[in-house]
Specification:
Chain B: Keywords: 2Fe-2S, Iron, Iron-sulfur, Metal-binding, Nitrate assimilation, Oxidoreductase. The complex is a heterodimer of chains A (867) and B (127). Chain A is of the alpha/beta class and 867 residues long. In chain A, 31% of the residues lie in helices and 20% in strands. Chain A has five domains: 9-116 and 249-313, FAD/NAD(P)-binding domain; 130-245, FAD/NAD(P)-binding domain; 497-563, no CATH class; 564-641 and 806-849, 2-Layer Sandwich (Alpha-Beta Plaits); 648-805, Sulfite Reductase Hemoprotein, domain 1 (2-Layer Sandwich), CATH 3.30.413. The chains are: A alpha/beta (867), B mainly beta (127). The structure holds siroheme, flavin-adenine dinucleotide (FAD), iron/sulfur cluster and FE2/S2 (inorganic) cluster.
Chain lengths: 867, 127
């Protein structure tokens, strides 16, 4: 990089969402090549996605939230000072001083300091246990404090307050929301919407108090929060308080250096985002009072300001920011709320169109102008149409407004796909990306997948609410261009696993060969198939066995040839060709007698024993020919296969729970055993794991499981889509405070829906992230039965439960099946000489030396009976 | 590298009861087992008189194949426990350990051209 001797210096204060966008806009214009750029950042980390802050509680790590591409700062030579806020601006000398003492002289100063959460001046507001909800550090502190709390209250029932309430609920707290206005989300929704919203939120187990103010935070002897006094004279007991009563622009630095601010705060700027008082100073984002006299608390207008300011600073003309749309879609777990355009119907002469179903908690209102123009609306309980309606705002929709608010199934706008939108309709509001730009990404920039289009256009990388629409558009565009993406399972099938599942189910095909010859790729028909589709199809046939009339035993007939070696021998192959054996220990509970049996069997066969990560015991080092002998001993003592080898239910771990633990609120061990016995043997696209914890302390690590259950004082919370392994993910809350029967019914449905629709080797976590509509869609299907398939899913599971048989015992009872358990077909009694062991810490380990050499100390056929 | 021809067993169904699977080892035919012990699509391990281990397979169309049982990538004697497949019409077995594929007719590894294992000619003898 060559720079002028004295390049001009741009100093930016604040590195939040808008601040970072500004840096990107500068970089796009190559400004950092000719100017020195210095950024003072108060927070300990560079800019991150504040809009998605709450997703931290569903497993997104702070790193994943980061907005800053690796190398961005070094590549552009930007000097970023994290953890070092600006403390003073001297406009006369044109310097900024940071807390560390660093003083920088600027030619241009950009204020991007954002907002601070407003905390009403009630007594006790600073007590231990009081929090705000703005930064990653706030969330870390809330999470830590919540671990020792039972109840939490959120002051403020707006967008953020409800998001915070959802988070507290997810942390296992009994949750209250206190809102001063007579309804929730008073800014965005009208009275009818507020009512529907209240019902839905209450339905989730959050207690809503509207029309009351918080008068005092009451503290206990140690100075921490114990209760809140409300304006109606009532007292709300709580251990934790989150203030979410609005935000205020952080304009203090500007005030101190004499820059004008608005009556209610906000640094006054013109249409170029420049302060009229001082041409060297700009303000963007939430700290600015825009030219239209408003402070915008949303990210999209902030991004527009960032672009505008960058243009002006780069010397381009034509950029201006004079106001923006304030549409929002709430990201709160389990509630669909959206408001857009003129939601309150303030345009003269406008008309409302309503649809409401109070039983289902649905409320929809559209505001339509005299000439039929769609002006805005409110959607509560079902915001699917948001993606379509918002871009249509300002135009006359192609369908009558009443058709636009009807629920799907009742004359819904089926015909109204994204194709109905004009090219200039904004699809991604956060990043201001139009339909035309998305289409161009496919047609001109040759993007062939949604992630590529996201990267190319940035659409969908903000709040995420447009991703569904984006996906539809991209797929339509790809299809129109004649591009078909090969989603086939492998070289043998063009179908995905889910499609094959439907084919097997609908046509009752119980044979792999038949499936391959009739539905395989032309070139694969009549062939051998491959190691990818064989086990996948075997698993589909096994999970549908009772329903399609196939034999359920995994070693019979053709099935025998399809299974991976582990399933074939009902044990796990180890590196030296020996096998390990894991008996089922439901819930991890085991009697001393059974422990002794395991000890005796392992001792008698010389096996290495280890406690697994799944709360049971693994015995390693068995030869193929020893497997039946070992099982016989185990089965006699009441053990059965633990399916450690199968793409099937593995373990349901438990904590000791209410029976012993002083904190336990439910019997987690009993529930874990019930679940393990119910789902044992269930074949699925990948392994399935579960756990049950007796209280919110979560000692069983249930949120790391495909389906995790955590006890509450009222029942059970069900979390789904958790994963350990290489790409860990915390499970998401699917439903709360369930009774035993409700819990089991939901798990039945969830598992069968997953088995039906997942790809091969796709854990529930990946599946949940992949499928259209994600968690919301899965909740609609399994909780609200939106596809009308729940009866069928339950029946499939009932079939599975009724037909379960232990595979070890079945094998032992059948001499024909036992025949394959030999090391050598022509020397059935000869042990395999390559399976040898050497001592290790008082047990054994595989002798690998013997495997390394080109030749083996051999055993000859002499002396062994020949075939 | 030698390419061995594979005899396809016709009328397997009728001959199944009495046919013996034989391999050509160092120029001589050695019987290993009755054909009925082979499940189409799977393999078995057999011991040769000199102690070598072979993996013997029967494919879906009745073809018989034999290769060394040792997986050269791990040293474990497990290839007989792999799954069969076909690529471009040629049958292969995928090692059950790390999934490398071996052409059943030539012993050539499809995933690493520097690796080839022994392959044996096969036939069935009747009566
Ligand atoms: C035996 C055990 C390790 C131990 O000694 O503790 C084990 C052993 C294996 N794990 Fe595991 N995992 C074991 C607990 C776990 C756990 C802990 C748990 O279940 O709570 C996890 C993290 C939780 C999870 O799965 O989300 C775990 C995550 C994995 C993964 C990563 C899965 C993922 O979705 O990322 C794999 C790889 C895979 O499945 O593709 C794996 C694969 C394997 C394989 C199958 C690798 C292989 O192909 O040889 C190992 C075979 C077991 C065998 O030969 O017996 N194992 N593995 C544990 C058996 C538990 C049991 O009682 O059944
Ligand atoms: C939980 C949550 C959910 C949200 N959801 C949505 C949503 O769905 N849709 C939407 O549009 N918006 C949403 N928002 C609002 C959105 O995050 C903001 O509009 C956006 O972050 C504003 O960007 P900004 O850069 O102006 O401010 P910020 O992102 O707040 O960044 C300002 C930065 O400046 C720093 N700073 C302040 N003073 C100084 C100083 N003196 N020296 C150095 N640094 C300083 C601050 O520490 C901060 O890091 C949400 C906000 C929160 C908290
Ligand atoms: S999770 Fe279980 S063991 Fe842990 S504290 Fe709660 S009840 Fe006790
Ligand atoms: S609308 Fe928010 S990311 Fe697209």
């Amino acid at each position: 990089m060559t720079a002028a001797a004295n390049p001009p210096t741009i100093v930016q204060i604040g590195h939040g969402m808008v601040g970072h966008r500004f840096l990107e806009a500068l970089a796009d214009r190559r400004v950092p090549d000719r100017a020195r750029v210095v950024v003072l950042c108060e927070e300990p980390r560079p800019a991150y996605d504040r809009v998605q802050l709450t997703s931290y509680f569903s497993g997104r790590t702070p790193d994943e939230l980061s907005l800053v591409e690796a190398e961005f700062m070094t590549r552009h030579g930007i000097e970023l000072h994290t953890g070092d806020p600006a403390v003073a601006i001297d406009r006369a000398a044109r310097t900024v001083t940071a807390r560390s003492g660093l003083t920088v002289t600027y030619d241009t100063l950009v204020l991007a300091t954002g907002s601070y959460p407003f905390v009403p001046p009630v007594p006790g507001k600073d007590a231990e246990g009081c929090f705000v909800y703005r930064t990653i550090e706030d969330l870390l502190a809330i999470e830590e404090y919540a671990a020792g709390s039972r109840t939490g209250a959120v002051v403020g029932g707006g967008l953020l307050g409800l998001e915070a309430a959802g988070a507290l609920k997810g942390l296992g707290l009994t949750t209250h929301v206190v809102e001063f206005a007579p309804r929730l989300m008073p800014v965005q929704v009208d009275e009818g919407g507020g009512e529907a919203l209240r019902r839905t939120i209450e339905g989730m187990g959050v207690e809503v108090h509207t029309g009351v103010g918080t008068q005092e935070i009451v503290t206990g002897e140690n100075g921490s929060v114990v209760a809140m006094n409300l304006s109606d004279g009532s007292v709300l007991d709580t251990d934790l308080v989150v203030f979410s009563a609005g935000v205020r622009p952080r304009d203090q630095l500007a005030r101190e250096c004499g820059l004008p601010v608005g009556e209610r705060g906000g640094i006054v700027v013109d249409a170029q985002c420049r302060t009229p008082e001082d041409e060297h100073v700009y303000a963007i984002g939430e700290c600015a009072l825009a030219a239209d006299g408003r402070v915008y608390g949303l990210v999209a207008p902030g991004y527009d300001m960032a672009e505008t300011a960058a243009k002006a600073i780069a010397g381009e003309t034509g950029g201006s920011f004079t106001g923006a749309d304030t549409s929002t879609k709430l990201k709160l777990l389990g509630v669909d709320v959206a408001s857009f355009g003129d939601a309150h119907g303030t345009t003269p002469g406008c008309l409302d169109v309503h649809y409401s179903d109070s039983r289902a908690g649905i409320y929809k209102k559209l505001v339509v102008g005299e000439d039929g123009t769609l002006l805005g609306g409110v959607l509560v309980g079902d915001a699917d149409a948001y993606g379509m309606l918002r871009p249509l705002t300002g135009s006359v929709p192609p369908l009558a407004p009443e058709q636009l608010v009807l629920p799907s199934g009742a004359g819904a706008p089926a015909a109204l796909g994204p194709s109905a939108l004009p090219d200039d309709a904004v699809i991604c509001n956060c990043l201001g990306v139009t339909k035309g730009a998305i289409r161009a990404a496919v047609t001109e920039h040759e993007c062939t997948t949604v992630p590529e289009v996201k990267k190319c256009t940035k659409a969908g990388t903000g709040c995420g609410s447009c991703v569904k629409m984006l996906t539809t558009l991209v797929n339509e565009e790809l299809e129109a261009g004649g591009i078909t993406v090969d989603k086939g399972l492998c070289g043998c099938f063009v179908h995905t696993r889910a499609e094959l599942y439907e084919i097997v189910r609908a046509l009752r095909i119980a044979s792999y060969a038949e499936l391959l010859d009739q539905h395989g790729r032309e070139e694969a028909r009549g062939g051998e198939g491959c190691e990818t589709c064989k086990p996948a199809v075997a698993s589909i046939i096994a999970s549908l066995a009772p329903t399609i009339g196939a034999g359920g035993y995994v070693l019979d007939g053709e099935q025998a040839a399809l299974q991976d070696t582990n399933d074939h021998f009902l044990a796990n192959l180890q590196k030296n060709g020996s096998y390990s054996i894991v008996p089922r220990v439901p819930g991890g509970e085991i009697t001393p007698e059974k422990l002794i049996v395991i000890g005796e069997v392992a001792r008698d066969f010389g096996l290495y024993t280890k406690i697994t990560g799944g709360q049971r015991i693994d015995m390693f080092g068995a030869r193929v020919d020893q497997l039946p002998l070992i099982w016989a001993r185990l089965v006699d003592a009441g053990f059965e296969s633990g399916h450690a080898y199968g793409k099937a239910l593995r373990t349901v771990k438990s904590c000791v729970g209410r029976t012993w633990c002083r904190y336990g609120v439910q019997d987690s061990v009993r529930m874990a055993i019930d679940l393990e016995l119910r789902y044992r043997g269930l074949r699925s696209p990948h392994k399935l794991k579960s756990a049950v914890s007796g209280c919110a302390r979560e000692c069983a690590e249930a949120r790391g499981k495909d389906f995790g259950v955590i006890a509450t004082s009222n029942g059970w919370n069900l979390y789904v889509g958790g994963n350990g392994g290489a790409d860990p993910r915390h499970a998401d809350l699917l439903a709360q405070d369930l009774s035993d029967a409700e819990l089991i019914r939901l798990i039945d449905r969830f598992l069968m829906f997953y088995i039906r629709t997942a790809d091969r080797l796709e854990r529930t976590s990946a599946w949940l992230e992949r499928i259209d509509g994600g968690l919301d869609h899965v909740r609609d299907v399994v909780v609200h039965d939106s596809l009308g398939i729940c009866d069928e899913l339950e029946a499939l599971m009932a079939d599975h439960v009724a037909n379960y048989r232990d595979e070890w015992a079945e094998t032992l009872n059948d001499p024909d099946r036992l025949r394959r358990f030999v090391s050598f077909v022509n020397a059935p009694d000869a042990p395999d000489p390559s399976v040898r062991f050497v001592p290790e810490r008082d047990q054994i380990k595989p002798d690998l030396e013997i495997l390394a050499g080109p030749t083996l100390p051999v055993r000859t056929l002499e002396g062994t009976p020949s075939a | 590298m030698t390419t061995l021809s594979v005899e396809t067993v016709e009328a397997v169904e009728t001959a199944a009861q009495t046919a013996t699977v034989e391999l050509r080892v160092d120029g001589a035919w050695v019987g290993v087992c009755d054909l009925s012990l082979l499940t189409p699509g799977r393999g078995v391990a057999a011991l040769l008189p000199d102690g070598r281990q072979v993996a013997v397979f029967r494919d879906r169309n009745g073809g018989l194949h034999a290769i060394a049982n040792r997986d050269p990538f791990t040293g474990a004697y497990v290839l007989s426990r792999g799954l069969l497949g076909s690529a471009s019409g040629r049958p292969f077995v995928a090692s059950p350990l790390l999934k490398q594929r071996f052409d059943l007719q030539t012993g050539r590894c499809l995933d690493d051209e520097n690796v080839t294992i022994a392959a044996y000619e096969t036939r069935t003898s009747h009566g």
